[in-house]
Structures are given as C-alpha cells and as structure tokens.
Design a protein that fits this description.
The complex is a heterodimer of chains A (about 45) and B (about 190). Chain A has about 45 residues and is mainly alpha-helical. Chain A contains two helices and no strands. Chain B is globular and about 50 Å long. In chain B, about 30% of the residues are buried. Classes of the chains: A mainly alpha (about 45), B mainly alpha (about 190). At the A-B interface, helix 1 and helix 2 of A face helix 1, helix 2, helix 5, helix 6 and helix 8 of B.
Chain lengths: ~45, ~190
C-alpha cells in the first residue's frame, strides 16, 4: 500500500524536476539549428 | 523527394518545434540524467524529425511524435552503448541515495532516486506524471500497451518510495516519515543538479 502523502509529494517533486528544465530558455544552439534547417526537402546522402 | 506541403508549412512547423524544445529537453534530461547528453539527444531528435517530416501527418500530435523520436533515439543509443561496453549506466548506480540525516528529502535525493529507476519505468512515470500525456498517448510514444504503461508507472512509484527509504506508513509510522516529507513541500531543496 503506497502512502498517499508520499505519493503526492513524489508527484510534486517529479513535476518540479521536469519544470526546472522546461522553464529554462531555449539554448542558442537549437535556435540556430532550426534557422539553418532547409525549408524544403533536400536530397540527403 | 520534394514536397511542397513541407515548404508551405515550414515556418509554422519550425515555430512549433521551437516551442516544444523546453519540453523535449526536460524529457531528455529525465531519460539521460545529464543535461549535456540530453541536449545532444534533442539535437539529434530535431534533425531526425526534420528529415522525416514526410512521415508526420499535419494536424496530428506533433509533441507526441517528437517525444517518440526522442525516446527511440535514446533507447537505440543505449543499446549501442551497451554493445560498445560503455558503462554509462554506472553513473546512476554510483549515486546511491541515502536519506539525509534528518530524514528529509531534497531535490538532489529525488533526482538520484529517479535515475535509479529502470529506464522504461522512469520514462512512463515522466510521460504521464510530468509531461502531461495520457496513458494512451504514453503507450503510443513508448510503443506498448496501455496496461504496460500503467504497471510501469505503479512500479516506478513503488520503487521511488522504496529508494527514498520510506516503504509504507505502516512500516515507519504515518506521522514521522510523512510529516518530514510533507513539511519539505515548497522548501525547494538544493538546486544543485
């Protein structure tokens, strides 16, 4: 039997760990990457 | 093969992908356990997604689709690393979780405990409990049955309880352990990753 309060706390901590990264600004490397992606399909190797 | 559909929708699709990156990073970090590797994983995911846009149906769930690519990339990379005998998983194993002297849990303890879960359980728990997907969506992303997701989530929760040193209220007494943990709510704990 899983303790309710503990499970609630686990859920809250899980969301906090996730949100920690999800709240962070997008690193430049990804902005640059998306900008550089071709708008049309190009033949790839 | 050139598809005009892709070029006419590219700007908004790129915008949509940009908007998904924070979530993709959060999911990737939960899978890998470290930000650097996670960001490499996200990079690969974006490239793969862009390469396979013809297999994405406009109007369907882009977020789920990209999460699927990310987790597939992660798990195939894990298999490759195991074949190359790269002992990457030892990182998580080394970080044994010892509840603090006062029995309180901080975020560091929790992160370590999370990293100790089997990857499929951790994945299921994060998809449903943090990323906000339904069990059905999580099952699609993980390519398994809904029942499998549910049992993975339950096992993940049970394992976390065990790792964090509190097996059940009947074993430790409801008040001491629970109060210690609940009192920590909003405390934040150490932000050191």
């Amino acid at each position: 039997m899983l303790d309710r309060a503990l499970q609630a706390r686990i859920g809250a901590m899980l969301r906090e760990v996730y949100a920690d990264v999800a709240k962070a600004p997008v690193p430049d490397r990804f902005v640059a990457l998306l900008k550089a992606l071709p708008d049309e399909d190009k033949p790839r190797e | 093969m050139r598809t005009s559909r892709v070029s006419s929708h590219s700007p908004s699709l790129k915008q949509a992908m940009l908007g998904l990156i924070p979530n993709l990073r959060a999911f990737a970090v939960s899978l890998c356990g470290d930000v650097e590797r996670a960001d490499d994983l996200v990079q690969e995911t974006l490239l793969k997604a862009w390469d396979h846009l013809d297999s994405f149906q406009e109007g369907t769930n882009l977020r789920a689709w990209m999460f699927t690519i990310l987790r597939n990339t992660y798990f195939s990379e894990c298999r490759r690393r195991r074949r190359e005998a790269e002992d990457d998983g030892s990182k998580a194993a080394e970080l044994a979780v010892h509840p603090g002297q006062d029995g309180y849990l901080d975020m560091q303890d929790f992160r370590r405990a999370l990293n100790e879960l089997p990857p499929d359980q951790r994945e299921a728990l994060v998809l449903v409990g943090a990323a906000g997907f339904s069990y059905e969506e999580a099952a699609t992303i993980s390519n398994c049955a809904v029942g499998t997701i549910k049992s993975r989530v339950n096992r993940a929760r049970a394992k976390l309880s065990e790792i964090l040193g509190v097996k059940s209220s009947s074993e430790y007494g409801p008040d001491a352990a629970t109060e210690a943990i609940v009192a920590r709510a909003g405390g934040g704990g150490a932000k050191v990753f």
